[in-house]
Amino acid sequence: MNKTAPPSTFVDLNELQLDTALALVGQPHMTLPVGGGAGTQYLQCLIDGLCDLSLTDPLTGLPNRRYMRQALDGEIDRVSRSGEAALLLMLDIDHFKRINDSHGHHAGDQVLQSVARTLQSCLRPMDTVARYGGEEFAIILPACQFGFGKVVAERVRRAIESTPIALSPHQSVHVTISIGGAFTMQWIRSTAQLWIERADTQLYIAKDSGRNCVSIEEQPDSTVSAEEKDELLGMLTGCFYNDADAKTLSPAPEHSTGSAAH
User: Fold this and answer.
1) Which EC class does it fall in (predicted)?
2) Which of 117, 170, 171, 230 is most buried, taking the most CB atoms under 10 A from its CB?
């Protein structure tokens, strides 16, 4: 018996109040299409545009915190399966409030935009740089080995320090950043929040050390001593044998050759 397919439901886009959505995606005068297929394509483009807006920082054009959290979750999943190292850097513009107080908030916006451009210019295409909030940025560096973490962070720090930021045709400023970093735990599925907290801890250390410096979390010591190996081997060996095996493997009791006492 053939089942009757449910009737298709068409939405008349002219009945939807889309003015605000169209204005947000920058196309307030777009003409609504006529027809089911065209309407579906039009609505999908509008949804995609709104999704992009929700994941982008409007001032710098960088991904925002929401996007970064999704990227962190994806990187943690990849590292837990591959065991490949990845580094998270948290960056903070030093004394940013002084810029706003001395030159105004427009100058502060110019500084944020310049820092964002510089960060993008000194990273790989596979890296993710996001504006985490305020004057703080975050960088996710996949496939970054432990030995290169501080090298990369120092390169970023120097790039920001050496880049003049033009506030006007006759005035420019220089800013510095403090950087804290933490690697993922290899082969372990952690959480984005814990990873951020570990990197943030290193950022606070960099600030407490005088700012304009880098602090990267030390690589956890995963080496196992000979005593620990022997102990672990003994524990594993014990798990492989049950009581019956133990009886079979244990030496037979000795029999007395003398006369039994009555």
Assistant:
1) transferase
2) 117
